[in-house]
Amino acid sequence: MTEQRSVLVTGGAGTIGSGFASWAADAYDLTLVDLPGRFSDRHADLGRIVEADLTDLAAVKEALAGIDTVVHLGGERSPSALWSQLLPANIVGTYNVVAAAVAAGCRRVVYASSVHAVSGYPAGTQVRETDPVRPGDLYGVSKCFGEALGSFAAGTEGLSFVALRIGAFREPAELEEPDSGWKLRDFCAPADLYRLMRRVIDAEGIGFEIYNAVSGNAFTRLPMHKASHDLGFEPEYDAFELATPFRDAVHSVGGLDDKIPLSGLRDDVAAPQPTPRR
Ligand SMILES: NC(=O)c1ccc[n+]([C@@H]2O[C@H](COP(=O)([O-])OP(=O)(O)OC[C@H]3O[C@@H](n4cnc5c(N)ncnc54)[C@H](O)[C@@H]3O)[C@@H](O)[C@H]2O)c1
User: Fold this and answer.
1) CATH code of the domain containing 246
2) How far does residue 257's CA lie from ligand 1's centre (Å)?
């Protein structure tokens, strides 16, 4: 049997970290890191558990020894977070993870960036991974820091670094809730994100890359062409297929079918022509 890749997940007790660990427990030799007191019994079967604060560089260095790939999800996830919360969790913590990954000789860091790194673009703008960053809040600024640090580490130290600009990570059922409108455009189904994360962990030959990470939504501000082109990744879900009123709207726009008669090139020819005026 071939040896499993050792993958360490920071924020391993959080929403995405716990979900990914359950989904990928058979695929990798997992280590989950989170703050003391965050893990529960359900994490025990998923992998090695390490309780550590990412602001503690020595503890992070110790945890990363012998790790192939770090999936860095740990930190503050709220777009309303204050600088005083973002500085330790997202700035110092991310620096420590990247510096420790370089020191430990890790192969790759997969970083949870966010749509908030580019949410300052006007509404309705599609943002590709090659467009300049334009955060809409300080949380987004902290995500830009992580992307920039990853680029620096890849360029100067040869660390492979992949940033995923994750959209609204939600269960499909949540799209039926009355206030779900804002979730549609950036909807990222857990199953789509987990499959993309796995594709990114296993891909060969990546230096530094950023990928949009949402579902295959019919209308989106984060198009998924780059992940499709580079990684052969195709999302399975589409928010506008899942949310009933939008599914109906999308299909009636595309279908232009039986409800109203539509004009065509043959109509005037077939109709009696008015006599030209002399
Ligand atoms: N949930 C989303 O919709 C979404 C969207 C875009 C990006 N992201 C990013 O994905 C990552 C995971 O998001 P989530 O929804 O699972 O968030 P979450 O809050 O559920 O999980 C984050 C985890 O990080 C841990 N953590 C925070 N500070 C830490 C520290 N100093 N040391 C160790 N652990 C620490 C927390 O205890 C928590 O368990 C975050 O970086 C977030 O910014 C999430």
Assistant:
1) 3.40.50.720
2) 46
The total of structural domains in the chain comes to 1
Residue nearest to atom 44 of ligand 1 (CA): 77
pLDDT, tens digit (0-9, with 9 covering 90-100), for 184-238: 889 999 999 999 999 999 999 999 999 999 999 988 999 999 999 999 999 999 9
User: In this structure, are residues 62 and 99 in contact, taking their beta carbons and an 8 Å threshold?
Assistant: no
Residue 275 lies in a domain: no
Sign of CA dihedral 151, 153, 155, 161: negative
Indicate which atom in ligand 1 lies nearest the CA of residue 169: 3
**Would you say residue 33 lies in a domain?**
yes
- With respect to residue 14, please indicate whether it lies within any of the assigned structural domains: yes
Residues with a CB atom less than 6 Å from ligand 1: 11, 13-17, 34-35, 38, 53-55, 73-75, 77, 88-89, 93, 112, 114, 166, 168-169
Range of the domain at 256: 6-270
Total-model pTM: 0.92
Residue 222 included in any domain: yes
